[in-house]
């Protein structure tokens, strides 16, 4: 996995144009472009007329890419060919500035499926982190849906707002971020039995099960994303203990790629293994009791040692230094400002007739400048 020098893109213009959100058609100034070299190395650049993207072997002229259709092959100054594509949402979330660890695309896809996130749904999300899952949820619910996100740390909320605004080019009107604890803040913004889905991505989701049950409609889905077995065990018992949900279902997703070339077909040497557990349950109607619960004890017995293993201190929490977090928040906010400025400019110009698409305009890492390596370190 290689890196790109932040000064590798040069040219006469001091300031690049603002990114063009979710654009399609021929590449235009301000577009993000993913260049794939002959060895499969990925680099994302922002197109600026007159500038160059330098590599260790020659340079790619931005002008050679501008005006070309998506999926074109461009040649650098020494004859090396590069594939030029607009980055996908998957590429965006893996390379955007991070405050907290992100939900991997493989888990985000499972969350959308297991929670049955549908267009027009009202969804509550606790633990907004860097905004990766928020992007997937906003994509799924569409403009008619509503996403209410809750975050305890203002720095994380700033990073998430910046990343979402960078991707869409504006602040979605159907998305709100509330600072504070879900158990206290949710009743103030959502009436009882008014929410279709609740997604909890936090260290201690069992603390929010009661508030989630109050907000969910009968038949609504509660989904929790946790990293450890002890978290999984405790949240499952918390869900059962309310008597307001179906028995929880738990799973994890592992993705293994395959090498396929002629008759040489084998699994890849590396795979995306454990990142987290998903646990889901559905809200019962008021007063309903599951048949199997009538034949079992209403409360399980646990020793003091078991309870101690469930405490947040025992679970542990990997954090980000305040200095690094402030730097990432500034980068996300600055990128969002550029995207919103370009979106406003595009809205004021006459329509070009180019069709709309959901292709993302990915954010860069804070330190990567115009030319970025897409191989962001995967953490969860």
TrEMBL record:
Keywords: Methyltransferase, S-adenosyl-L-methionine, Transferase, tRNA processing. GO terms for cellular component: tRNA (m1A) methyltransferase complex. CDD domains: AdoMet_MTases. Residues 1-38, 301-380 are annotated as: Disordered. GO terms for biological process: tRNA methylation. GO terms for molecular function: tRNA (adenine(58)-N1)-methyltransferase activity. Residues 1-11 have a biased composition (Polar residues). Residues 94-260 form the tRNA (adenine(58)-N(1))-methyltransferase catalytic subunit TRM61 C-terminal domain. The keyword Cell membrane does not apply. It comes from the Bacteria. It holds the Pfam family TrmI-like_N. InterPro entries: SAM-dependent_MTases_sf (IPR029063), TRM61_C (IPR049470), tRNA_MeTrfase_Gcd14 (IPR014816). This is tRNA (Adenine57-N1/adenine58-N1)-methyltransferase. It comes from Compostimonas suwonensis. The lineage of its organism: Bacteria, Bacillati, Actinomycetota, Actinomycetes, Micrococcales.
